[in-house]
């Protein structure tokens, strides 16, 4: 509700329809005037004053109709409508206040001129009020949008400062602590443990410290995706995959590898693309219960995208996890944790896609598609960093 001169005006979100209806009503009044005058054979129809009034009314009727249609499609909040309605009614009242006394002081000879004069004043006032109201509403809307954008920018800057602090804490405090824990657990296992049970406990501590370091490193990568601009450049994905496969064998021991990796194949990404394939390859082995894990990597270059498929012979992914596989997981309910969420976020920032192609008792297959690039392409392309997800 909007209060104007002590009167409540309920326009809700139907102001465009009201404006169109008001324009149609004024048009009907004009046509009725002309029809009645022609029916009674009045010569006022051809009178210069009456004709001028009709001609000067038409642009305002057209403007009111256009304003109604414009309001329907305009990106204006309905909260602006009451003020526009206030401008329309206020302007009509003002024009009548000016013209009615003039009519009273200098009354025309014909009633038709009086009706036409009042109709002209109402149309002129409504058209002018609608124009002013729409201009003001757009100005207010833009001002509020600019203010909200400034607040968002300030909030994002504050978030980035806080994330920089968290990154420092992770790098210098938590990661160092995880390294120390791993080192002392290794000493306990090698030098102080006297039973198989004690050595197993020490191994569990070492594995947990390694897991902690991996999660911290993943978080640091995620923080990098929110810092400044996101630069992409031609990256030889064949080289990246071979490096990650070598790391996989070094960490997890003998793995049956099947590869089809032509070289070189370039994609538009950056050095963080290694984390995409590192996480997928580790998942293929870490959760694999086969006597000898088997991993297949296939690279299919295309004119627009490069498709990389990574398949394993593991036990498959539980149905309960498939739908949320690439989402953030609260706590530790998922075997895939932060890794696949990081994969999706990185691939999205590279303008690519990642999907679980199939999964079952015979294993799982993931497919990553990244934009094709050539070494000659510019390395200066950048895009704004993604918004921080709460």
UniProtKB/TrEMBL annotation:
Catalysed reaction, written as an equation: ATP + protein L-histidine = ADP + protein N-phospho-L-histidine
Domain Histidine kinase: 169-374
Region of interest (Disordered), ranges: 371-390
Signal peptide start and end residues: none
Any one of the GO CC terms: plasma membrane
EC number: 2.7.13.3
CDD domains for the chain: HATPase, HisKA
Major enzyme class: transferase
Pfam name, any one: HisKA
Transmembrane segment boundaries: 20-42, 48-72, 84-104, 110-135
Alphabetically ordered keywords of this record: ATP-binding, Cell membrane, Kinase, Membrane, Nucleotide-binding, Phosphoprotein, Transferase, Transmembrane, Transmembrane helix
GO MF terms held by the record: ATP binding; phosphorelay sensor kinase activity
Subcellular location: Cell membrane
Membrane disposition: Multi-pass membrane protein
Listed PANTHER family: SENSOR PROTEIN CREC, SENSOR PROTEIN RSTB
Protein name (Swiss-Prot/TrEMBL): histidine kinase
């Amino acid at each position: 509700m909007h209060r104007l001169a002590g009167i409540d005006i309920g326009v809700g979100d139907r102001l465009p329809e009201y404006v169109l209806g008001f324009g149609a009503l004024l048009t009907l009044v004009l046509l009725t005037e002309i029809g009645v005058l022609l029916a009674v054979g009045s010569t006022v129809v051809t009178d210069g004053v009456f004709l001028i009034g009709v001609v000067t009314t038409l642009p305002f009727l057209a403007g009111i109709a256009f304003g109604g249609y414009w309001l329907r499609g305009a990106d204006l909040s309905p909260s602006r409508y009451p003020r526009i309605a206030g401008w329309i009614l206020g302007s009509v009242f003002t024009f009548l206040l000016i013209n009615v006394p003039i009519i009273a002081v200098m009354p025309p000879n014909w009633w038709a001129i009086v009706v036409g004069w009042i109709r002209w004043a109402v149309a002129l006032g409504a058209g002018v009020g609608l124009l002013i109201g729409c201009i003001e509403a757009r100005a207010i809307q833009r001002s509020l949008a600019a203010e909200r954008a400034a607040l968002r920018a300030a909030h994002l800057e504050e978030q980035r400062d806080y994330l920089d602090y968290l990154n420092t804490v992770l790098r210098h405090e938590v990661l160092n602590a995880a390294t120390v824990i791993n080192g002392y657990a290794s000493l306990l296992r090698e030098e102080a443990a006297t039973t198989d049970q004690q050595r197993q406990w020490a191994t569990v501590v070492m594995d947990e410290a390694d897991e902690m370091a991996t999660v911290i490193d993943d978080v640091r990568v995620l923080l990098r995706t929110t810092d400044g601009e996101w630069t992409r450049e031609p990256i030889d994905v064949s080289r990246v995959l071979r490096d990650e496969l070598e790391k996989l064998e070094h960490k997890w021991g003998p793995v049956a590898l099947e590869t089809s990796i032509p070289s070189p194949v370039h994609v538009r990404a950056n050095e963080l693309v290694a984390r995409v394939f590192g996480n997928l390859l580790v998942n293929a082995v870490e959760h694999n219960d086969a006597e000898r894990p088997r991993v297949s990597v296939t690279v299919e270059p295309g004119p627009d995208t490069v498709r990389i498929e990574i398949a394993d012979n593991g036990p498959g992914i539980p149905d309960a996890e498939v739908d949320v596989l690439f989402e953030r997981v609260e706590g530790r309910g998922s075997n895939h944790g932060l890794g696949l969420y990081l994969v999706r976020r990185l691939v999205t920032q590279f303008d690519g896609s990642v999907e679980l192609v199939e999964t079952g008792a015979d294993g799982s297959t993931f497919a990553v598609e990244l934009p094709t690039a050539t070494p000659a392409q510019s390395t200066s392309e950048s895009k704004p960093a993604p918004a921080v997800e709460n």
